[in-house]
Amino acid sequence: DTGVSQDPRHKITKRGQNVTFRCDPISEHNRLYWYRQTLGQGPEFLTYFQNEAQLEKSRLLSDRFSAERPKGSFSTLEIQRTEQGDSAMYLCASRGGTGTGGSYEQFFGPGTRLTVL
Amino acid sequence: AQSVTQLDSQVPVFEEAPVELRCNYSSSVSVYLFWYVQYPNQGLQLLLKYLSGSTLVESINGFEAEFNKSQTSFHLRKPSVHISDTAEYFCAVSVSTGFQKLVFGTGTRLLVSP
Description:
The structure holds 2 protein chains of 2 kinds.
Chain A: E1 5-7, E2 10-13, E3 19-24, E4 31-37, E5 44-50, E6 53-57, E7 65-68, E8 75-79, E9 88-95, E10 107-108, E11 112-116
Parallel strand pairs in A: 2-11
Antiparallel strand pairs in A: 1-3, 3-8, 4-5, 4-9, 5-6, 7-8, 9-10, 9-11
Chain B: E1 3-5, E2 10-14, E3 19-21, E4 24-26, E5 31-38, E6 44-50, E7 56-58, E8 64-68, E9 73-78, E10 87-95, E11 103-104, E12 108-113
Parallel strand pairs in B: 2-12
Antiparallel strand pairs in B: 1-4, 3-9, 5-6, 5-10, 7-8, 8-9, 10-11, 10-12
Protein backbone atom coordinates (compact mmCIF):
# COMPACT_ATOMS: atom_id res chain seq x y z
CA ASP A 1 0.00 0.00 0.00
CA THR A 2 1.57 3.31 -1.02
CA GLY A 3 -0.94 5.61 0.68
CA VAL A 4 -0.36 8.06 3.52
CA SER A 5 0.23 6.36 6.86
CA GLN A 6 0.04 7.78 10.36
CA ASP A 7 1.24 6.41 13.66
CA PRO A 8 -0.16 5.85 16.21
CA ARG A 9 -3.81 5.57 15.23
CA HIS A 10 -4.93 6.27 18.79
CA LYS A 11 -3.22 8.01 21.70
CA ILE A 12 -4.54 8.50 25.20
CA THR A 13 -2.52 10.73 27.46
CA LYS A 14 -2.85 12.67 30.67
CA ARG A 15 -3.01 16.44 30.75
CA GLY A 16 0.45 17.94 30.84
CA GLN A 17 2.20 15.14 29.02
CA ASN A 18 3.99 15.51 25.68
CA VAL A 19 2.90 13.53 22.63
CA THR A 20 4.40 13.03 19.17
CA PHE A 21 2.67 11.82 16.03
CA ARG A 22 4.25 10.60 12.83
CA CYS A 23 3.12 10.90 9.23
CA ASP A 24 4.61 9.06 6.27
CA PRO A 25 3.41 10.66 3.02
CA ILE A 26 3.22 9.09 -0.40
CA SER A 27 6.86 8.70 -1.36
CA GLU A 28 7.00 10.97 -4.38
CA HIS A 29 4.94 13.76 -2.78
CA ASN A 30 6.92 16.84 -1.77
CA ARG A 31 4.02 18.72 -0.12
CA LEU A 32 2.69 17.77 3.27
CA TYR A 33 -0.15 19.21 5.36
CA TRP A 34 -1.36 18.73 8.92
CA TYR A 35 -5.01 19.30 9.86
CA ARG A 36 -6.96 18.96 13.09
CA GLN A 37 -10.54 17.71 13.23
CA THR A 38 -12.65 18.09 16.36
CA LEU A 39 -15.95 16.35 16.92
CA GLY A 40 -18.67 17.61 14.63
CA GLN A 41 -16.36 19.88 12.68
CA GLY A 42 -14.50 19.76 9.43
CA PRO A 43 -10.71 19.52 9.41
CA GLU A 44 -8.84 22.76 10.11
CA PHE A 45 -5.45 23.55 8.63
CA LEU A 46 -2.48 23.53 11.00
CA THR A 47 0.72 23.66 8.96
CA TYR A 48 2.29 23.05 5.56
CA PHE A 49 5.64 21.73 4.38
CA GLN A 50 7.19 21.86 0.95
CA ASN A 51 10.02 19.38 1.05
CA GLU A 52 11.71 20.03 4.43
CA ALA A 53 10.68 23.69 4.68
CA GLN A 54 7.75 24.65 6.89
CA LEU A 55 6.19 27.43 4.83
CA GLU A 56 2.95 28.14 6.64
CA LYS A 57 1.55 27.81 10.14
CA SER A 58 -1.99 28.48 11.27
CA ARG A 59 -2.69 30.64 14.30
CA LEU A 60 -4.26 27.47 15.71
CA LEU A 61 -0.72 26.18 16.14
CA SER A 62 0.17 27.56 19.54
CA ASP A 63 3.68 27.59 20.99
CA ARG A 64 3.02 24.16 22.44
CA PHE A 65 2.81 22.69 18.96
CA SER A 66 5.82 22.01 16.75
CA ALA A 67 6.15 20.15 13.48
CA GLU A 68 9.16 18.95 11.56
CA ARG A 69 9.95 17.27 8.29
CA PRO A 70 13.69 16.77 8.64
CA LYS A 71 14.58 15.18 5.31
CA GLY A 72 11.56 16.09 3.30
CA SER A 73 10.07 12.66 3.80
CA PHE A 74 8.17 11.77 7.00
CA SER A 75 6.86 14.45 9.33
CA THR A 76 6.28 14.64 13.07
CA LEU A 77 3.83 16.76 15.03
CA GLU A 78 4.61 17.26 18.72
CA ILE A 79 2.30 18.71 21.33
CA GLN A 80 3.90 19.74 24.60
CA ARG A 81 2.04 20.05 27.91
CA THR A 82 -1.18 18.68 26.42
CA GLU A 83 -4.52 20.18 27.43
CA GLN A 84 -7.98 18.66 27.25
CA GLY A 85 -8.79 21.03 24.42
CA ASP A 86 -6.14 19.30 22.31
CA SER A 87 -8.33 16.20 22.08
CA ALA A 88 -9.03 15.76 18.38
CA MET A 89 -8.22 13.77 15.27
CA TYR A 90 -4.94 14.87 13.73
CA LEU A 91 -4.85 14.31 9.98
CA CYS A 92 -1.91 14.35 7.64
CA ALA A 93 -2.18 14.81 3.89
CA SER A 94 0.33 14.85 1.05
CA ARG A 95 0.29 16.19 -2.47
CA GLY A 96 2.50 16.01 -5.50
CA GLY A 97 4.10 19.13 -6.93
CA THR A 98 2.82 20.99 -9.97
CA GLY A 99 3.47 19.18 -13.19
CA THR A 100 2.69 15.76 -11.76
CA GLY A 101 -0.58 14.01 -12.46
CA GLY A 102 -3.33 14.73 -9.94
CA SER A 103 -1.24 17.39 -8.31
CA TYR A 104 -4.22 19.29 -6.95
CA GLU A 105 -5.47 16.38 -4.87
CA GLN A 106 -4.46 16.02 -1.24
CA PHE A 107 -4.29 12.38 -0.12
CA PHE A 108 -5.20 11.92 3.52
CA GLY A 109 -3.94 9.43 6.05
CA PRO A 110 -6.27 7.64 8.50
CA GLY A 111 -5.48 10.12 11.27
CA THR A 112 -4.30 9.92 14.87
CA ARG A 113 -7.05 10.26 17.46
CA LEU A 114 -5.75 12.00 20.57
CA THR A 115 -7.61 11.85 23.86
CA VAL A 116 -6.31 14.00 26.70
CA LEU A 117 -7.63 12.98 30.12
CA ALA B 1 -10.20 34.44 3.37
CA GLN B 2 -12.32 31.57 2.18
CA SER B 3 -15.21 29.92 3.97
CA VAL B 4 -17.53 27.00 3.30
CA THR B 5 -21.07 26.51 4.52
CA GLN B 6 -22.81 23.17 4.66
CA LEU B 7 -26.21 23.98 6.07
CA ASP B 8 -27.39 20.39 6.52
CA SER B 9 -25.63 18.58 9.34
CA GLN B 10 -27.53 15.38 8.64
CA VAL B 11 -29.53 14.12 5.67
CA PRO B 12 -31.62 10.95 6.13
CA VAL B 13 -32.75 9.24 2.95
CA PHE B 14 -34.13 5.89 1.88
CA GLU B 15 -32.15 3.54 -0.31
CA GLU B 16 -32.55 4.18 -4.06
CA ALA B 17 -33.89 7.70 -3.45
CA PRO B 18 -32.12 10.77 -4.88
CA VAL B 19 -30.11 13.04 -2.62
CA GLU B 20 -28.59 16.51 -2.71
CA LEU B 21 -25.99 17.74 -0.23
CA ARG B 22 -25.64 21.49 -0.28
CA CYS B 23 -22.42 23.48 -0.24
CA ASN B 24 -21.93 27.22 -0.53
CA TYR B 25 -18.60 28.97 -0.42
CA SER B 26 -17.24 32.47 -0.04
CA SER B 27 -14.05 33.75 -1.63
CA SER B 28 -12.81 36.96 -3.21
CA VAL B 29 -10.38 35.08 -5.45
CA SER B 30 -10.52 32.12 -7.79
CA VAL B 31 -10.90 28.79 -6.00
CA TYR B 32 -10.82 25.09 -6.58
CA LEU B 33 -13.70 23.06 -5.11
CA PHE B 34 -13.70 19.55 -3.67
CA TRP B 35 -15.99 17.00 -2.10
CA TYR B 36 -14.39 14.52 0.30
CA VAL B 37 -16.07 11.50 1.91
CA GLN B 38 -15.17 10.07 5.30
CA TYR B 39 -16.29 6.59 6.30
CA PRO B 40 -16.25 5.66 10.00
CA ASN B 41 -12.74 5.33 11.44
CA GLN B 42 -11.16 6.16 8.11
CA GLY B 43 -9.40 9.14 6.58
CA LEU B 44 -10.83 11.48 3.98
CA GLN B 45 -11.15 10.29 0.40
CA LEU B 46 -11.54 12.62 -2.55
CA LEU B 47 -14.91 12.13 -4.21
CA LEU B 48 -14.66 14.73 -6.96
CA LYS B 49 -13.13 18.09 -7.74
CA TYR B 50 -13.72 21.16 -9.86
CA LEU B 51 -10.65 22.96 -11.10
CA SER B 52 -11.79 24.55 -14.36
CA GLY B 53 -13.68 23.76 -17.52
CA SER B 54 -17.01 21.98 -17.46
CA THR B 55 -19.03 23.04 -14.43
CA LEU B 56 -20.49 19.55 -14.01
CA VAL B 57 -18.09 17.01 -12.56
CA GLU B 58 -18.75 13.35 -11.90
CA SER B 59 -17.30 10.62 -9.71
CA ILE B 60 -16.88 6.96 -10.58
CA ASN B 61 -19.56 5.88 -8.10
CA GLY B 62 -22.44 7.93 -9.45
CA PHE B 63 -22.08 11.22 -7.59
CA GLU B 64 -21.98 14.51 -9.45
CA ALA B 65 -21.54 18.14 -8.47
CA GLU B 66 -22.15 21.34 -10.34
CA PHE B 67 -20.13 24.50 -9.89
CA ASN B 68 -22.37 27.57 -9.95
CA LYS B 69 -20.26 30.71 -9.81
CA SER B 70 -23.15 33.16 -9.60
CA GLN B 71 -24.65 31.34 -6.62
CA THR B 72 -21.23 30.39 -5.20
CA SER B 73 -22.43 26.83 -4.79
CA PHE B 74 -21.08 23.34 -5.40
CA HIS B 75 -23.93 21.01 -4.48
CA LEU B 76 -23.41 17.24 -4.52
CA ARG B 77 -26.08 14.99 -6.01
CA LYS B 78 -26.74 11.33 -6.59
CA PRO B 79 -29.86 10.07 -8.38
CA SER B 80 -30.08 6.80 -6.43
CA VAL B 81 -28.23 6.16 -3.16
CA HIS B 82 -27.08 2.87 -1.67
CA ILE B 83 -26.69 1.79 1.93
CA SER B 84 -22.94 1.89 1.38
CA ASP B 85 -23.10 5.65 0.71
CA THR B 86 -23.71 6.23 4.42
CA ALA B 87 -20.82 8.45 5.47
CA GLU B 88 -19.79 12.01 6.32
CA TYR B 89 -19.36 14.30 3.32
CA PHE B 90 -17.17 17.40 3.43
CA CYS B 91 -17.11 20.24 0.94
CA ALA B 92 -13.79 22.10 0.71
CA VAL B 93 -12.20 24.98 -1.18
CA SER B 94 -8.67 26.06 -1.85
CA VAL B 95 -7.31 29.09 -3.63
CA SER B 96 -5.83 28.33 -7.00
CA THR B 97 -2.42 29.76 -6.08
CA GLY B 98 0.04 29.43 -3.22
CA PHE B 99 0.22 26.37 -1.04
CA GLN B 100 -3.47 25.61 -1.50
CA LYS B 101 -4.57 24.63 1.98
CA LEU B 102 -8.06 23.19 2.11
CA VAL B 103 -10.82 25.05 3.94
CA PHE B 104 -13.57 22.63 4.92
CA GLY B 105 -17.22 22.94 5.78
CA THR B 106 -18.61 21.32 8.91
CA GLY B 107 -19.74 18.25 7.04
CA THR B 108 -23.03 16.56 6.23
CA ARG B 109 -23.80 13.10 7.54
CA LEU B 110 -25.69 11.09 4.92
CA LEU B 111 -27.77 8.34 6.52
CA VAL B 112 -29.18 5.82 4.04
CA SER B 113 -31.76 3.41 5.39
CA PRO B 114 -33.45 0.42 3.74
